[in-house]
Amino acid sequence: MSASAAQLKLAAMPEHDAAPDLNELLVRVGRGDENAFAEVYDALGSAVFGLARRVIRDPARAEEVAQEVFIQVWQSAARFDPARGNAKSWCLTLAHRRAVDAVRHDQAATNRENKYDWSSGPDFDEVEETVTITLEHEQVKRCLDGLTELQREAVNLAYYQGYTYAEVAAALDANTATIKTRMRDGIVRLRDCMGVTA
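Structure tokens predicted for Sigma-70 family RNA polymerase sigma factor:
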């Protein structure tokens, strides 16, 4: 077979093996054709991701944007007009806009975080602990007010000032046995008041 005969044979072959026109596919997507959407995705998926990746530094974020673009293509393909442009340009324009929006959104979030500098504030656990300690101190003060004067002074000197029994006895002008008894009774009353079991 000569070269010219081979060319004639190729020219006579039907073009069913040729890739379908993207404009036609996108019009079909606009009518809800899922198979056409799959073909558009196969044809443009890499280009859309590549464009998103060039605009967005984070590959995972670029992948999210590419997925959002194809959701938008599916939802808005009915608005595509092949007389005003081609399908590839239309899809890549959507991708570029979506990627730029993502960069702006991410930058705005970073700016807000930096402006309020959340990291410099105390952790939630620190705040909770501070509140808990404050409440416990208030409860201890209320319970101390319920003790007799000798019990309150003895507990205060021993536990808050670090005095020994003998030093407490000397400070309160009482014998050591009396101080030990008053402190023991005072501690029992404090435990009861605070709901602590021995």
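Residues 124-194 form a domain with the Arc Repressor Mutant, subunit A fold (CATH 1.10.10.10).
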